[in-house]
C-alpha cells in the first residue's frame, strides 16, 4: 500500500531561476525502509522538505505536479497537520531544539499529545536511556557536542506517533559506535512498529548494513536510480553519481572482481566467496609505520583544562607533538575532549595547567589573534562561524580584517571558491546554501588566510564523495607544501586513508598515539573509545587474508591491483 506518491513533481525555490526538483515520480510503500542518496545539491534534502512540510511553509517556492502523503496533499495542509504523518530529524540539530533542557526537548511531543506527567517522565527517561543520554537530561541542548545533539534528536523522534519517520543525515555528527547505535535504533523502530523509514545519508556503507529495501539515487534534481542496493552495487552507478561505495566493495572492484547482483554484496559476510581470489594476490609491502622526523611545530606538555573551577578536568595530562608537513587525525567518542583540546590550542579556551609550544616558543600568553596568524580553526558547526550574509563576503572577511587590498582579495577568494566547489555560488546569499555547503564555506574562509597549521573539525561530515575527494586532495597538496593539518574526525575511512598518525582521546586523556592501522586493529582501543573497525579490516578477516596490513596498505596507496589469473 503506497504511503507517499510523487507524480510529475517539480519545485522551484523563490528567487531561483531553475527548478531544484524535476519530474519526480516516486512511490514509497507503507512499511518500507528507504535510503535516499545523492551528491551535495542533488535535491535530496529538498525532496525531504516537500515530504515533511518545510516546503512550502518554511521554504517558499513554486510547486507543479502532485504529491500525496497517505490521504493528504501536504502543501495544501498546515505543517502541524503534516507532523501527524511525518516525524523528522533535521540535519541541522540547532534548528530543531525547542526545550530549555534535554528532558524538556524530548518531552515536547508527549506534551503536545497531552500525555500524563508521570507517564511522560518515564517515557522521556526510556528514550534518553536508549541513546545513552540520560545523564544529560537537565543539560541545555546548545551546550552539547554535535554528536550528543544528534542523539537527543534521536530520542525525540522515538516519541513520535507519525507513520513516516524521516532522518536527514542522522549519522553526520556521530562517532562510529554512536552511528552504529543510531542505525540499530532506527532498525529496531522499523522492526517493532513497521513504520515507514526514509533515511537521507552520505554514509552509504553504514546504512546498508541494516537491510535497506530500496536505494534512491538523486542527481541534478532528478531521480536517476530507484533499485535494490545489490543491483546498484553490482555496477558503477553509485560511484558515477558522485557517491562513495562501501569501502570493501571499492577494494574488491579495484582488484578486477566482477560483482553480480546475485552475490548480494550489500551484506559483507557474502564476500567469503572471494576468499581464494583475495589470497592469491600479492599486495604492496611498503612500510606504513615510518616515523616523521620533521621539525616539531606544536607541542603540548602536561596540559589540563576544565570549564568551571568546581568541575572535573575536561582534558587532562595531554602530551603530544605535531610535526611539520604531517596530517594528524584526532579520534575518539563524542564528548571525549577532541574539540576542547583544539580550542585550547587556538586560545579560544585558556588551559589551567601545562604548557603549549610553537616550535621552541611557549605560547601560553599569546592572544587569539597572535595564534590565528599561525593556526586556522574550522569548527564542526558552520553556524558557529558564519558572520556575513553573502558567500564572497564571508570568505573575504578575514583578509579584509588584515587590510588586504580588494584586488588581491578577489583573486584569492575566487581561487578558494574553486578549490572548495563553491565557485558557481559565489554571488549567492549564505542562507541559500545547504548545511554541507555551509561547511565548505567555513573551510574556504580559513584556507584563504593561508595559515601554517590548519585544524579541521569534522571537515567531511555531510559532504558527498566527489567533494570529499576533491577537498582531501587539496589537503594533501597543503601537506606537500609542508603545512601541518589536524583533523578531528569520526570518519575512520578518512583517518585510515589520509592520516600519517593518530591520537585517540577517551574521557579527556590520550589513550593511544600510533598509526591509524595499528589503532583500528586493536579491539580493546576500538571498544573503549567508541571507534569502529573499517570494512577493509572486516573483509580481511572474513576472507582470511594472510597479511591484512599489506592488503590495507595497498588500498591506501591506491596500488590495489593484481593478476587474478595468478
Number of helices: 23
The average pLDDT value, as a whole number, equals: 88
CATH architecture of the largest domain: 3-Layer(aba) Sandwich
N-C termini distance: 52 Å
User: What CATH first level of the largest domain would be assigned?
Assistant: Alpha Beta
Q: What percent strand?
A: 15-25%
Judged by helices, strands and strand pairing, the structural class is alpha/beta
User: CATH-wise, what's the superfamily of the largest domain?
Assistant: P-loop containing nucleotide triphosphate hydrolases
Tell how many strands the DSSP assignment holds: 19
Number of domains: 3
The strand line-up of the biggest sheet is 5-6-7-3-8-9
User: Largest sheet at a glance?
Assistant: 6 strands, mixed
CATH topology name of the largest domain: Rossmann fold
Characterize the overall form: globular
Q: Helix content range of the residues, please? A: 25-40%
Low-confidence stretches: 562-566
Radius of gyration: 24 Å
Q: Would you write up a description of this structure?
A:
Strand 18 and strand 19 (509-514) form a beta hairpin. The strands form 4 sheets. A 6-stranded mixed sheet has the order 5-6-7-3-8-9, with helices on both faces. Helix 4 runs parallel beside helix 6, helix 5 (117-130) crosses helix 6 (146-157) and helix 15 packs parallel to helix 17. The model is unreliable at 562-566 (pLDDT under 50). The protein is globular, with a radius of gyration of 24 Å. It folds into 3 domains: 2-244, Rossmann fold (3-Layer(aba) Sandwich), CATH 3.40.50.300; 246-289 and 532-566, no CATH class; 296-531, Rossmann fold. The protein is 36% helix and 21% strand. By secondary structure, the chain is α/β, with parallel strands linked by helices. It contains 23 helices and 19 strands. Its main location: membrane. It is a peripheral membrane protein.
Amino acid at each position: 500500500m503506497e504511503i507517499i506518491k510523487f507524480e510529475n513533481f517539480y519545485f522551484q525555490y523563490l528567487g531561483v531561476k531553475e527548478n531544484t526538483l524535476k519530474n519526480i515520480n516516486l512511490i514509497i510503500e507503507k512499511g518500507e525502509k528507504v535510503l535516499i542518496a545523492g551528491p551535495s545539491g542533488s535535491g535530496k534534502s529538498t525532496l525531504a522538505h516537500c515530504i515533511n512540510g518545510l516546503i512550502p511553509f518554511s521554504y517558499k517556492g513554486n510547486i507543479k505536479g502532485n504529491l500525496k502523503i497517505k490521504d493528504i496533499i501536504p502543501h495544501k495542509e498546515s505543517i502541524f497537520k503534516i507532523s501527524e504523518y511525518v516525524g523528522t530529524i533535521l540535519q541541522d540539530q540547532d534548528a530543531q531544539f525547542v526545550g530549555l533542557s534535554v528532558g524538556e526537548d524530548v518531552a515536547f511531543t508527549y506534551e503536545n499529545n497531552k500525555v500524563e506527567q508521570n507517564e511522560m517522565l518515564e517515557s522521556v527517561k526510556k528514550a534518553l536511556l536508549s541513546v545513552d543520554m540520560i545523564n544529560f537530561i537537565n543539560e541545555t541542548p546548545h551546550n552539547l557536542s554535535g554528536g550528543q545533539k544528534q542523539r537527543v534528536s534521536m530520542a525525540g523522534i522515538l516519541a513520535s506517533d507519525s507513520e513516516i519517520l524521516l532522518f536527514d543525515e542522522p549519522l553526520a555528527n556521530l562517532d562510529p559506535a554512536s552511528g552504529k547505535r543510531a542505525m540499530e535504533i532506527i532498525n529496531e523502530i522499523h522492526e517493532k512498529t513497521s513504520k515507514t523509514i526514509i533515511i537521507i545519508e552520505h554514509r552509504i556503507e553504514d546504512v546498508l548494513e541494516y537491510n535497506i529495501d530500496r536505494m534512491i539515487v538523486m542527481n541534478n534534481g532528478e531521480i536517476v536510480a530507484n533499485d535494490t542496493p545489490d543491483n546498484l552495487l553490482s555496477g558503477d552507478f553509485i560511484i558515477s553519481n558522485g557517491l562513495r561505495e562501501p569501502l570493501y566493495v571499492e577494494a574488491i572492484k579495484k582488484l578486477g572482481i566482477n560483482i553480480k547482483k546475485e552475490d548480494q554484496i550489500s551484506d559483507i559476510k557474502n564476500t567469503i566467496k572471494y576468499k581464494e581470489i583475495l589470497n592469491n594476490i600479492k599486495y604492496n609491502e611498503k612500510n606504513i609505520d615510518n616515523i616523521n622526523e620533521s621539525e616539531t611545530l606544536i607541542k603540548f606538555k602536561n596540559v589540563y583544562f576544565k570549564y568551571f573551577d568546581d568541575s572535573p578536568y575536561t582534558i587532562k595530562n595531554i602530551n603530544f607533538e605535531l610535526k611539520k608537513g604531517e596530517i594528524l587525525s584526532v579520534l575518539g567518542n563524542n564528548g571525549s575532549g577532541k574539540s576542547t583540546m583544539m580550542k585550547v590550542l587556538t586560545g579560544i579556551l585558556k588551559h589551567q595547567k601545562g604548557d603549549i609550544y610553537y616550535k621552541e616558543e611557549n605560547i601560553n600568553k599569546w592572544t587569539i589573534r597572535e595564534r590565528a596568524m599561525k593556526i586556522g580553526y574550522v569548527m564542526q558547526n558552520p553556524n558557529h562561524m558564519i558572520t556575513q550574509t553573502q558567500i564572497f563576503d564571508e570568505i573575504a572577511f578575514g583578509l579584509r580584517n588584515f587590510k588586504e587590498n580588494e584586488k588581491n582579495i578577489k583573486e584569492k577568494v575566487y581561487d578558494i571558491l574553486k578549490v572548495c566547489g563553491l565557485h558557481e555560488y559565489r554571488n549567492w546569499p549564505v542562507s541559500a546554501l545547504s548545511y554541507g555547503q555551509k561547511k565548505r564555506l567555513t573551510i574556504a574562509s580559513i584556507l584563504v588566510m593561508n595559515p601554517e597549521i590548519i585544524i579541521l573539525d569534522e571537515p567531511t561530515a555531510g559532504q558527498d564523495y566527489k567533494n570529499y575527494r576533491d577537498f582531501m586532495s587539496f589537503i594533501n597538496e597543503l601537506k606537500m607544501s609542508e603545512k601541518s593539518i589536524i583533523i578531528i574526525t569520526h570518519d575512520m575511512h578518512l583517518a585510515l586513508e589520509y592520516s600519517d598518525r593518530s591520537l585517540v582521546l577517551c574521557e579527556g586523556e590520550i589513550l593511544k598515539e600510533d598509526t591509524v592501522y595499528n589503532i583500528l586493529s586493536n579491539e580493546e582501543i576500538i571498544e573503549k573509545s567508541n571507534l569502529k573497525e573499517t570494512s577493509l579490516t572486516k573483509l580481511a578477516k572474513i576472507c582470511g587474508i594472510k597479511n591484512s596490513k599489506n592488503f590495507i596498505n595497498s588500498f591506501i596507496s591506491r596500488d590495489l591491483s593484481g593478476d587474478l589469473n595468478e
